[in-house]
């Protein structure tokens, strides 16, 4: 017979498959879709290896700690035994070789000490009270003499030190006086040298003036000689010397040229300062304009954000107020696709 599938059967089969698929997808315990199982298994193995390595390291450290504690306990017990043995040896030595009757000291509080004393020991005792020092007076005298010697030595050392300081002060004053005298002599020599230089400069200037005047006089006499010269003779063709008026004019020209250069330099510096001030002013204006634009953009952005927030609140009033019914949750996990 032919297998005939009814529409209702296909619909029920599809619904069953959808139900099974939904269980496989939405069940966290058996779901494998969208999960890298190999990576998870590898992570589990790595974690197990790390745990085993940490456990081995902890066991090793515990074993080392136990070993060290045992060694410390053994060393401590050995030291305690050695200490006890040393104390016992000291006690035994004292019992054997340091008996009270063999000691050189005697008990001062013994009332029968004088009765037990032998006659020879009594004769060896110095006369006087017990504990009296017969040489104390001579010792004090020697101490006083030694203190007196020390005091005299200190006084002599202080006097020598004061004398040395006084000599050093006198030498310092003498050296200062000599330095002042040397400075005065050098100053006098410098003044004399300057006077001599001024006199020499003055004489040189006077000689130059006289030479100039002689040259001017010879220059004035040359035209007359040239007019009276014999025909056919070649006169001196050297350029005439400069006149004082020309020298003065040249100096004036130099002064004016220097003033002009200083004025140009000053104008150039003023121009540079003006350009620098203009550039600084322009930069300040640009910075203020940029700050103003940034403030305007910030205000516009804040207003836009406020408008968007208000619109968002108006679009979702139920979520903001907490009025959410079951129909909101029924929209989730309705299909496995």
UniProtKB/TrEMBL annotation:
Coiled coil: none
InterPro entries: RIB43A
Location within or outside the cell: Cytoplasm, Cytoskeleton, Flagellum axoneme
Spans annotated as Disordered: 1-20, 45-65, 100-171
Basic and acidic residues bias spans: 11-20, 45-58, 104-119, 136-148
Pfam families per record: RIB43A
Keywords: Cell projection, Cilium, Coiled coil, Cytoplasm, Cytoskeleton, Flagellum
Composition-biased stretches (Polar residues): 1-10
Major localisation: cytoplasm
PANTHER family tied to this protein: RIB43A-LIKE WITH COILED-COILS PROTEIN 2, RIB43A-RELATED
Family membership: Belongs to the RIB43A family.
SUBUNIT field: Microtubule inner protein component of sperm flagellar doublet microtubules.
Name under which the protein is recorded: RIB43A domain with coiled-coils 2
Gene that encodes the chain: ribc2
């Amino acid at each position: 017979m032919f297998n005939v599938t009814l529409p209702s059967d296909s619909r029920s089969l599809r619904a069953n498959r959808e139900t099974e698929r939904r269980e496989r997808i939405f069940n966290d315990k058996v779901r494998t879709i969208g999960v890298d199982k190999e990576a998870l298994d590898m992570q589990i193995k790595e974690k197990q290896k790390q745990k085993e390595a940490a456990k081995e390291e902890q066991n090793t450290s515990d074993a080392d700690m136990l070993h060290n504690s045992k060694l410390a306990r053994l060393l401590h017990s050995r030291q305690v035994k050695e200490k006890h043995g040393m104390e016992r040896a000291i006690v035994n030595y004292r019992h054997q070789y340091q008996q009270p009757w063999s000691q050189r000291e005697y008990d001062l509080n013994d009332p029968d000490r004088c009765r037990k004393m032998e006659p020879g020991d009594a004769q060896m005792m110095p006369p006087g009270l017990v504990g009296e020092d017969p040489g104390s007076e001579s010792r004090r005298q020697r101490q006083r003499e030694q203190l007196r010697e020390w005091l005299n030595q200190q006084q002599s050392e202080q006097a020598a030190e004061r004398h040395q300081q006084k000599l050093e002060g006198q030498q310092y004053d003498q050296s200062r006086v000599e330095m002042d005298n040397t400075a005065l002599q050098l100053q006098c020599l410098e003044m004399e040298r300057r006077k001599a230089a001024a006199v020499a400069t003055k004489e040189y200037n006077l000689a130059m003036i006289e030479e100039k005047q002689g040259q001017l006089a010879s220059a004035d006499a040359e035209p007359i000689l040239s007019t009276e010269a014999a025909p056919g003779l070649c006169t001196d063709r050297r350029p005439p010397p400069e006149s004082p008026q020309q020298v003065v004019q040249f100096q004036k020209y130099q002064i004016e040229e220097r003033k002009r250069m200083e004025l140009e330099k000053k104008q150039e510096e003023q121009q540079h300062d003006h350009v620098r001030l203009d550039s600084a002013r322009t930069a300040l204006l640009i910075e203020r304009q940029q700050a103003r634009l940034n403030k305007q953009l910030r205000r516009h952005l804040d207003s836009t954000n406020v408008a968007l927030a208000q619109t968002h609140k108006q679009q979702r009033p139920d979520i903001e107020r907490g009025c959410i019914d079951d129909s909101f949750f029924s929209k989730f996990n309705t299909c496995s696709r």
